[in-house]
Amino acid sequence: MSYPPRAPFPATRLRRVRAHDWSRRLVRECSLSVDDLIWPLFVFDGHGTEAIKSLPGVSRLGTDHIVDAARRAVDLGIPAIALFPATDPKLKSDDAAEAINENNLVCRVTREIKRAVGDQLGVILDVALDPYSSHGQDGLVRDGRVVNDETIAVLLQQAIVQARAGCDVIAPSDMMDGRIGVIRGALDEADFGDVQIMSYAAKYASAFYGPFRDAVGSAANLGAADKKTYQQSPSQSDEAIHEVALDLAEGADSVMVKPGMPYLDIVARVKQTFGVPTFAYQVSGEYAMIRGAVDAGWLSGDAVIMESLLAFKRAGADGVLTYFAPDAARLLGR
Ligand SMILES: NCc1[nH]cc(CCC(=O)O)c1CC(=O)O
Ligand SMILES: [Mg+2]
């Protein structure tokens, strides 16, 4: 055998198209755009900003800062924000009554944001009781159990007050069975037929939510309890498909998989199975993991952020809820 070898040469060399930037761009299968981003924001009833220890770089925004953040989202071209309230502990109760107060923090702030930016920005609000309950659970607790149907009776009222405040998208994140159909019916009856429902359809009982619970202050309320009787076990894949099928049949306009990066297989299955608008939530723990490593100098920030978000697109997601939304929008705008 002579050297260098003359034949046979590999007919197919995948490196050929990788050799030039123009050619890599030409064969690109998926890409991330600012249109794919949803920016989650934490708001508290006060002024200024509050750092969140377990979410470096993310702050709770006071009512005097939140409208500016919404304007910033518009300027960056981000299509939508998701608002989460850090409720004053004094307003939390066993029945989470503050959730259905039409002048609660999130409703007031939504009205202000919509007044300022109108239809230039979509506002998404969670439907679940955990920011308002003294036990930190997403539903009502009776004899130590999170009860399903009684909870839904409250959730539908929460959805209505939020829609009345001007919220564009209701996002039930509670994982009660059957709530999408009931909320859809209630919205339609109250003349909010145009308000969308983005269902957290496949939401897992995950350890990656820790920093979020610090941010909204539900960690202390929840204590050592967990949400395993309603959120899915991380071992489940077929069950996620079943969940999504039910929520779509009940009227969900779009569905979400949560967390994101450890569940890209679920994102891919959901998109391939149903072909509907599918979102993924790169949750607080995923953000903290990346941010922490970047801040320690172990990972290169911009590259890792963009790679992590592109991976959602490759899996089939139509959009990503991410605390990196403003960073990504800035990087994409270059
Ligand atoms: N309804 C609760 C809710 N809505 C969004 C998140 C987590 C988001 C994140 O971790 O970034 C959670 C946490 C939970 O289920 O305990
Ligand atoms: Mg369900």
TrEMBL record:
The active site is at K203, K258. Its EC number is 4.2.1.24. Pfam families: ALAD. It is an enzyme of class 4 (lyase). Keywords: Heme biosynthesis, Lyase, Magnesium, Metal-binding, Porphyrin biosynthesis. GO terms for cellular component: cytosol. CDD domains: ALAD_PBGS_aspartate_rich (cd04823). Mg(2+) binds at E243. This is Delta-aminolevulinic acid dehydratase.
